[in-house]
Amino acid sequence: MKILVTGANGYLGQGIVSALLDDGAEVVAADRKTDRVDGRAQAFECDLYSIEDPYHYFGCPDALLHLAWRDGFIHYSDAHIDDLPLHYAFLQSFANSDVKKIAAMGSMHEIGFFEGSIKEDTPCRPVTPYGISKNALRQLAEMLCSQNGKVFQWLRGFYIVGNSRYGSSVFSKLTAAELEGKAEFPFTMGQNQFDFIDYDEFCRRSARAVEQDEVCGIINICSGHPEKLADRAERFIKENGYSIRLKYGAFPDRPYDSKAVWGDSSKIDAIMRSK
Length: 275
What we know:
The protein is of the alpha/beta class.
């Protein structure tokens, strides 16, 4: 299977590209820069949205996995709204091609404020430009795939735990602060409960989802259970042997974050069992 991965040089792209390659897929990796992309992939440094015929330009892949997205952790960035037409036009060009599958990375922020287990059919009421744009692209991608007979997959990502300093999550920021020799890390009270999944496992699950066609539509890439942010952060510090301490109460909780939210992992669990 030949899979085009956009945003391949990003935090998620790097790990997912490697996971796909480990499973034997042929990977075409595209991004503005590709210096962190697994050397086994065929790399293209380019502006995705200026290519007239991306399907043929990237060598007629069997599947597209669209990860490219600006300012993912800046939830109120105008880039989410500004870039939406570019994402749509890019997916539309593939929907009109001979590609067999269109998959894209979503986010639990599409749901908006919600408490409990998020299922594939949980109503979406996003409250930030990031969540609104992701949800709009999901609906547009599903429409394009339905109109053109393509397999559609939407990988809804949850809270990823990794020790790369290059990410934008609280765990990447903790790692960066530790490497800078800081003694304390400003933190919330950490009482909100989220669905945490380790980076390597997230990448493996994302890769396995795209490599198969039996389970489609929205697929929650999650662990399936909640954990307090404070507990996971403290455990993360111990797992990595860090000396930094959390300074609780330095920041308030974000008003749009749920008190306890996690994903229904039924579909991804079935995929992982079948491989």
